[in-house]
């Protein structure tokens, strides 16, 4: 999967596109892992150009969220489509992975 | 579990039979012959699993050659059956039905199971005599080797799926006053959806413990986690109430789930014959009571199991149970998100659940209707459903359930899938 990476002041915005699934999630996860290892623990994943997220994709986001928090940072998601929001609501995962409307808004306080 | 996107991962979904079909078609194209077939040992006679071109009738008319090829160690090439010493006139002449052009050229390679047993032959056929050069013989041998690998991998996966199905409850619990049925249809040979039930002696008499769970991800890996979840939960549920059982299961499996990077949604309940329900919803969200007075959902705002709970984690939660009462005219329906996915909205899903109140529909019938609807709508996710209702205790209906029900009920609104594992080669 191709993903854009924008180095903002204080955080990094990653913008994958296409489908976030079993194939495309691991590279994203690896990249976020590298960023966290480098001390870049504030991550925004912009889902605006993502068509679909399957359970593997969701698992990768949760795993990255965990890694970021363990290193004192956080992971936020932005511009998620209605279906991603629906699954987050249903599983109550929106309690810990709150979707922001845009990448700008997600990174505002950082 | 899939993320309710309507779009599921488009990789790794190819079925075993698709792969066999492609290899047979490939063999036919590579050798530029009118027919190719993969024919395996059946219980009584050979079975042509897949065929391309005139492969099926060619395989049928060359069965003695298939038997011969099965017994050889490698590639068999018979340039002209009509002139061959073994199959020509006076030996084992091949009988070709009227209207079928006789096969003259036969080349085959035996294929093997994981245990090394010869199980079938991949063969190509031509109506004219010809031969294969050494490169072509090698290609045929290579195609056979690919099939060998595939057969052994799919055999093991199918076996894992069978074990998984056998781990599901097969018999309804012997508990007067409650009727329950459940079923899982895996998208692949094995998957992450599971359910379980058992009867437990509790402080208010015998109760029914029911759980439906969904492990994130699909296939073999998810099924292994599902087996662990089921075993741990069952172990605890025997001795403590549903709330404590979920709490202990969450704690017991936390390290494993964290290491695997997976999470699991669960809906777990204790139901008494009086209709009293105590339930714990761990991020599952898909339990509804269908009622003549309108549907109500039995959900809570708790997270799935396996959610990382680090010291910085505000969401570290203490589990809580909730309560409800199932009335005699109501139906408790718990499904996995593969079922929910086929509905456009929660409203549509509720409407469909309400239809399950149709008079005369048993729990097993309702489960069948749910599974048939989900698979008929083309979901590529695992689907699971458990349905519970009260029955007059003097007339308990014993409802078989589990894996092998295929008869769609009247409530089926779309074509039932028929097969228990949709992608499995039968």
Q: Care to give the gist of this entry?
A:
The complex is a heterodimer of chains A (about 110) and B (about 425). Helix content of chain A is about 40%, strand content about 30%. Chain A has about 110 residues and is an alpha/beta fold.
How many discrete structural domains of chain B? 2
Work out the number of β strands of chain A.
7
The CATH architecture of the largest domain in chain B is 4-Layer Sandwich
Could you report the average pLDDT of chain A, rounded to the nearest whole number? 87
Q: What does this 3D model show about the protein?
A:
The complex is a heterodimer of chains A (110) and B (426). With 110 residues, chain A is of the alpha/beta class. Chain A has one domain: Transcription Regulator spoIIAA (2-Layer Sandwich). Chain A contains four helices and seven strands, in the order E-E-E-H-E-E-H-E-H-E-H. In chain A, the strands form two sheets. In chain A, strands 1-2-4-6-7 form a five-stranded mixed beta sheet. Chain A has a two-stranded parallel sheet with strand order 3-5. Chain B is of the alpha+beta class and 426 residues long. Chain B has two domains: 147 residues, Beta-Lactamase (2-Layer Sandwich), CATH 3.30.450; 221 residues, Phosphatase 2c, domain 1. Chain B is 31% helix and 23% strand. Chain B contains nine helices and 15 strands. Chain B has a five-stranded antiparallel beta sheet with strand order 2-1-5-4-3, with helices on both faces. In chain B, helix 1 runs antiparallel to helix 4 and helix 5 runs antiparallel to helix 6. Chain B is elongated, with a radius of gyration of 27 Å. The interface between A and B is medium-sized, with 32 and 37 residues.
């Amino acid at each position: 999967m191709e993903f854009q990476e924008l180095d903002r002041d204080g955080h990094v915005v990653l913008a994958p596109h296409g489908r976030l699934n079993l194939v495309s999630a691991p590279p994203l996860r690896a990249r976020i892992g590298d960023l966290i290892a480098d001390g870049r623990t504030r991550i925004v994943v912009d889902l605006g150009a993502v068509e679909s997220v399957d359970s593997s994709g969701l698992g990768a986001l949760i795993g990255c969220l965990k890694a970021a928090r363990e290193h004192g940072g956080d992971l936020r998601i932005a511009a998620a489509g209605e279906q991603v929001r629906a699954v987050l609501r249903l599983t109550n995962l929106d309690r810990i992975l709150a979707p922001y409307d845009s990448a700008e808004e997600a990174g505002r306080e950082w | 579990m899939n993320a309710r996107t309507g779009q599921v991962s488009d990789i790794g979904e190819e079925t075993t039979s698709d792969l066999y079909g492609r290899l047979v078609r490939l063999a036919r194209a590579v050798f530029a012959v009118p027919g190719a077939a993969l024919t395996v040992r059946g219980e009584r006679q050979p079975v042509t699993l897949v065929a391309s071109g005139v492969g099926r009738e060619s395989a049928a008319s060359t069965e003695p050659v298939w038997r011969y090829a099965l017994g050889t160690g490698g590639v068999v090439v018979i340039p002209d059956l009509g002139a061959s010493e073994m199959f020509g006139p006076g030996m084992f002449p091949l009988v070709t039905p009227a209207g079928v052009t006789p096969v003259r050229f036969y080349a085959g390679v035996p294929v093997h199971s994981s245990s090394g047993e010869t199980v079938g032959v991949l063969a190509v056929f031509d109506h004219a005599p010809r031969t294969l050069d050494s490169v072509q013989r090698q290609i045929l041998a290579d195609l056979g080797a690919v099939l060998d690998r595939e057969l052994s991998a799919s055999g093991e996966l199918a076996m894992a799926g069978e074990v998984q199905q056998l781990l599901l409850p097969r018999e309804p619990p012997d508990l007067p006053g409650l009727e329950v049925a459940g079923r899982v249809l895996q998208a692949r040979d094995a998957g992450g959806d599971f359910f379980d039930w058992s009867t437990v002696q509790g402080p208010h008499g015998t109760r029914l413990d029911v759980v439906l769970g969904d492990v994130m991800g699909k296939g073999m890996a998810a099924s292994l986690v599902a087996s662990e979840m089921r075993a741990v939960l069952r172990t605890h549920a025997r001795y403590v109430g549903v709330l404590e059982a979920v709490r202990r299961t969450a704690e017991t499996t936390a390290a494993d789930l964290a290491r695997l990077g997976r999470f699991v949604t669960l809906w777990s309940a204790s139901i008494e014959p009086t209709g009293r329900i105590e339930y714990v919803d761990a991020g599952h969200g898909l339990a509804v009571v269908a009622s003549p007075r309108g549907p109500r959902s039995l959900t809570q705002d708790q997270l799935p199991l396996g959610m990382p709970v680090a010291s910085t984690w505000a969401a570290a939660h203490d589990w809580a149970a909730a309560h409800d009462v199932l009335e005699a005219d109501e139906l408790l329906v718990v499904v996995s998100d593969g079922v929910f996915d086929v509905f456009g909205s929660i409203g549509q899903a509720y409407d469909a659940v309400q239809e399950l109140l149709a008079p005369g529909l048993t729990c097993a019938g309702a489960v069948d209707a749910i599974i048939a609807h989900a698979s008929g709508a083309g979901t590529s996710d695992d689907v699971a459903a458990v349905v519970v209702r009260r029955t007059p205790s003097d007339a308990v209906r014993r409802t078989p359930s589990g894996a092998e029900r295929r008869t769609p009920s009247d409530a089926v609104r779309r074509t039932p899938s028929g097969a228990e594992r949709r992608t499995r080669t039968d």
